[in-house]
TrEMBL record:
InterPro entries given in the database record: WD40/YVTN_repeat-like_dom_sf, WD40_PAC1, WD40_repeat_CS, WD40_repeat_dom_sf, WD40_rpt, WDR18/Ipi3/RID3
Annotated keywords: Repeat, WD repeat
One of the GO BP terms on file: DNA-templated DNA replication
GO cellular-component term (any): rixosome complex
Annotated WD repeat ranges: 123-154, 175-218, 270-301
Superkingdom classification of source: Eukaryota
Protein name: Uncharacterized protein
Keyword check for Hydrolase: no
Claim: Repeat is one of the keywords in the record: yes
Length: 474
């Protein structure tokens, strides 16, 4: 297998026995089968091109019916099996692979630290099943979509607030514009604003400024939309529907700021499936679509034709992801230093900060980790930073773990500072509103004495400087 080649990873939710199938995208050859996996839509992801993580919807050793399996891609026969307190559907991870978010059928959301499996936060995010989870491109926000049509945006800094892990995180904003289940979420930051695109069974795709929560435009389709994906250049939006059609629209938001705008341009329609579209993704070779008809198509998006078809006769594909074929190779000695990364069993319940479980690492790294693993006291001091620097020269597991702990401490400090700033802003806004109310009742045609004008100007200046309101005679 050439280093630059890609592999297609697919799975179904029909039966645990079907498992995961991996194909060579260039030739269509079958590369690998991983048994024992049945994952719902949005329930499969690739972590740092080294691990596959999949939520399981069938009972398999868990009282609550939930399970999350993790496979090392270079030796996927024996997964790491974690059993959350309830069944998890959708999954999402940060770009750096440090954190994993999971959404439950109950509407609850969970956040784990992957390196030690610690459950950092659990909260009731939605009233109905949580269908989609997505971290923003810079990992600063977690976006969730539900069966109730709601979309919520959660600041990551509040999710990582370790001082009060039992409380619900702060909600940046939410939307109830969709009238049916959310089926897809994706983000792009190529334009002047950070854009979120959401799809729903109500037959619409909506484009948002997800930082402010402002609705930019709505695209209406004649059918329920079941999956969406953006072209890598982020100019074309592909929307799969319940009858197997794929609508292709130009994502042109420009300077448009009218939330009531409805895109009316006739989209290109791709037809190659006999069942509803279940998943969409992109590879270097083109668009890839999966359907309830148990087929997977790879499309040339220039000529709009199918260039390869895969048959998955064991059930409708619910998840697609593309990985480098080099991820399936055994890790060489040279790669040990640069690619070292491990994951742990995910906690079912919140655990003390210093509680750690066994980890799973690529087999070629296990020996090195066992030899050098030690118990360290992590403190945010100058000596700690020097210790990390010294360990980094050797690329030891201790260095990786210490950097993670230091990152958490820094984020806790940032959380406290953010809360303080937010409280100050709230106080200042309240005082400014009081001033505006007073000025609304000032007579406009009466000449105000110079002494009073000076007193008013001094009052306004004190507000901007954060001083106490001066006492003035009426």
């Amino acid at each position: 297998m050439d280093k630059g080649k890609e592999a297609l990873v697919v799975c179904s939710d029909k039966s645990m026995g079907i498992g995961i199938t991996i194909w060579d995208l260039d030739t269509g050859d079958h590369l690998l089968h991983i048994p024992t996996c049945a994952s719902p839509s949005h329930g499969l992801l690739c972590l740092r091109n080294q691990f596959l993580v999949a939520s399981q919807i069938h009972k398999h050793g868990s009282v609550g019916g939930g399970a999350i399996f993790t496979w090392a891609l270079n030796k996927p026969q024996s997964p790491l099996r974690s059993y959350p307190v309830e069944a998890i559907g959708s999954l999402s991870c940060t770009k750096d692979g440090l954190y994993l978010a999971g959404g439950a059928l109950s509407g609850n959301a969970y956040l784990w630290e992957i390196s030690n499996g610690r459950l950092l936060k659990t909260w009731h995010a939605h009233h109905k099943s949580l269908n989609c989870l997505l971290f923003s491109n810079d990992d600063s926000l977690l976006i969730s979509g539900s069966d109730d049509g709601m979309i919520c945006v959660w600041p990551a800094i509040s999710l990582l607030d370790m001082e009060d892990s039992g409380s619900s995180p702060s909600l940046l904003h939410y939307s109830s514009e969709h009238r049916s289940s959310i089926t897809g979420l994706l983000t792009t930051s190529s334009s002047s604003i950070s854009v979120l695109v959401s799809s729903s069974l109500d037959g619409t795709c909506k484009v948002w400024d997800f930082v402010s929560g402002r609705l930019i435009q709505t695209q209406v389709y004649p059918l329920a939309i079941t999956a969406i994906v953006l072209h890598p250049e982020e100019q074309l939006l592909f929307c799969g529907s319940v009858d197997g059609s794929i609508f292709v629209n130009k994502l042109d938001i420009g300077l448009l700021e009218d939330p009531f705008f409805i895109a009316e341009a006739q989209p290109v329609v791709l037809k190659g499936h006999n069942g509803g579209i279940t998943a969409l993704t992109f590879s270097e070779l083109g668009l890839i679509s999966a359907s309830e008809d148990c087929t997977i198509c790879m499309w040339d998006v220039v000529n709009w034709v199918i260039i390869r078809r895969f048959n998955h006769g064991k059930g409708a594909v619910t998840n697609l992801t593309v990985i480098p074929q080099s991820s399936l190779h055994s890790v060489s000695n040279h790669q040990r230093v640069s690619n070292q990364f491990h994951v742990s069993l995910l906690d079912k319940y919140p655990q003390p900060a210093n509680s750690f479980k066994g980890t799973i690492t690529p087999p070629s790294l296990c020996h090195s980790y066992e030899e050098k693993q030690t118990s360290l006291d992590f403190r945010s001091t100058d000596s700690l930073q020097q210790h990390i620097f010294d360990l980094e020269k050797k690329r030891t597991p201790e260095a990786v773990q210490m950097k993670v702990e230091t990152c958490i401490e820094n984020r806790m400090w940032a959380t406290r500072m953010t809360k303080h700033v937010m409280e100050m802003n709230k106080h200042l806004q309240t005082r400014l509103l009081d001033l505006m109310e007073c000025r609304m009742f000032w007579p406009t045609e009466i000449d105000i004495p110079t002494s009073k004008k000076r007193e008013i100007l001094k009052f306004e200046s004190s507000l901007l400087e954060g001083e106490e309101k001066p006492q003035s005679s009426s």
